[in-house]
């Protein structure tokens, strides 16, 4: 049975009905009479009298809608009278209407209800996903029962921080295909709404020298690289820091590391060796060259003619002795070969 509609013919009465529906200053009542005209006290809420201004009278453009409830056994043509109580207790009839109950009825059919639940995938993101329903925070797995046609607003965070350092989750959409983090649903059936996230891991890149790149968040299972803009860093004139390869979760000896599989938080650290600079080696070469030239010059000077020292020493020799012209050893005058150096005298 559909709710009957009453259209008051008295403009003044209708005006009063509108007032009652808007501000509750007046009270609406109904009287229900069965097909033989008897008043049926069990046919309405609250023993036949309903405060329609507070319960179920709706003021619309040209009518007042009244919802009643009949016993299941009552059939036939019914009369409903709408009355209003004015201040001072004056009761006035506004309108009457008739309707026919052709089959047992308990009044208007109940509005269907449906369940809705909310989950987060993967489950590790649930604790910090920030799920809300109509602005109120709810946990993953929360179940609601709503009337058909109801509308509700759902929301989830765009990015969720993981419980483990270096882990985060990025919203990819709802399980029914909606991509916005905040959306409005209309209840028409039982449903499960799952906020879906993808897992990302952080790559940390460390280097004491140069500018390192590659530090970022990467989708689970993707490939990443760490890289440097230099391979040598100066440490004054005589020393350099020279890149020697990647350590920790990275590998390779080139400034760009080998591929890193991002299946967990990863760290790439550049290793540097302290080495002599090219300037240092240039100085060493120059010193060696100068020393070599000086040695050669000294050797050349050593091969030139020498002034005989025999005349100076002969005064100390007897008439039977002489000096070796090579090593200046004292030799017998008749010696043809120096007994000290073996050279001819």
Detailed description of the structure:
Strands 7, 10, 12, 13, 15, 17, 20, 21 and 23 form a nine-stranded mixed beta sheet that branches. Strand 20 and strand 21 form a beta hairpin. With 345 residues, the chain is mainly beta. Helix content is 12%, strand content 40%. The chain is rod-shaped, with a radius of gyration of 55 Å. Mean pLDDT is 76; it is low at 1-26, 44-69 and 310-316. The N and C termini lie far apart (154 Å). Among the domains are: 5-101, Immunoglobulin-like (Sandwich); 113-200, no CATH class; 306-345, no CATH class.
Sum up the structure in keywords.
345 residues; mainly beta; Immunoglobulin-like; 9-stranded mixed β-sheet; 12% helix; 40% strand
Q: What is the distance, rounded to the nearest whole angstrom, between the alpha carbons of the first and last residues? A: 154 Å
Radius of gyration: 55 Å
Helices and strands, in order, run as EHEEEEEEEEEEEEEEEEEEEEEEHHEE
Quaternary structure annotation? single chain
Share of β-strand residues: 35-45%
Which CATH class of the domain at 5-101 is shown?
A: Mainly Beta
For the record, the CATH architecture of the domain at 5-101 stands as Sandwich
**Mean pLDDT, rounded to whole units?**
76
Report the biggest beta sheet as strand number plus sense, adding barrel if it closes: 9 strands, mixed
Shape: rod-shaped
- Please mark out the parts with pLDDT under 50 across 5 or more consecutive residues, or reply none: 1-26, 44-69, 310-316
Count of helix runs: 3
- Report the structural category: mainly beta
Helical coverage, percent range:
10-25%
- The beta-strand count equals 25
Give the CATH topology of the domain at 5-101: Immunoglobulin-like
């Amino acid at each position: 049975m559909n709710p009957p509609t009453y259209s008051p013919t008295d403009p003044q009465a209708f005006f009063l009905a509108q007032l009652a529906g808007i501000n509750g200053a007046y009270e609406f009542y109904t009287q229900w009479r069965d097909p033989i005209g008897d008043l049926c006290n069990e046919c309405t809420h609250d023993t036949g009298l309903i405060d329609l201004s507070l319960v179920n009278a709706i003021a619309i453009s040209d009518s007042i809608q009244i919802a009643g409830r009949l016993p299941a056994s009552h059939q036939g043509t019914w009369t409903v009278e709408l009355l209003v109580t004015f201040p001072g207790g004056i009761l006035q009839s506004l309108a009457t209407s008739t309707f026919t109950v052709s089959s047992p009825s308990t009044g208007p059919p109940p509005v269907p209800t449906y369940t809705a639940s909310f989950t987060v995938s993967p489950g590790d993101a649930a604790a910090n996903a920030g799920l809300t329903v109509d602005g109120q925070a709810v946990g993953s797995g929360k179940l609601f029962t709503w009337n058909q046609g109801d509308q509700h607003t759902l929301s989830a965070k765009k990015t969720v921080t993981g419980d483990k350092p270096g882990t985060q989750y990025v919203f990819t959409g709802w399980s029914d295909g909606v991509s916005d983090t905040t959306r409005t649903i209309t209840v028409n059936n039982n449903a499960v709404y799952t906020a879906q996230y993808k897992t990302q891991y952080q790559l940390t890149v460390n280097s004491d020298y140069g500018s390192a790149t590659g530090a970022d968040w990467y989708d689970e299972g993707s490939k990443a690289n760490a890289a440097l803009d230099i391979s040598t860093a100066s440490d004054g004139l005589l020393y350099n820091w020279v890149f020697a390869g990647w350590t920790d979760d990275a590998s390779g000896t080139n400034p760009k590391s080998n591929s890193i599989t991002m299946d967990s938080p990863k760290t790439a650290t550049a290793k540097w060796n302290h080495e002599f600079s090219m300037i240092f080696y240039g100085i060493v070469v120059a010193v060696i060259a100068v020393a070599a030239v000086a040695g050669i010059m000294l050797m050349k000077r050593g091969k030139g003619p020498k002034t005989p020292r025999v005349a100076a020493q002969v005064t100390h020799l007897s008439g039977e002795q002489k000096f070796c012209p090579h090593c200046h050893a004292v030799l017998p005058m008749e010696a043809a070969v120096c007994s000290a150096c073996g050279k001819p005298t």
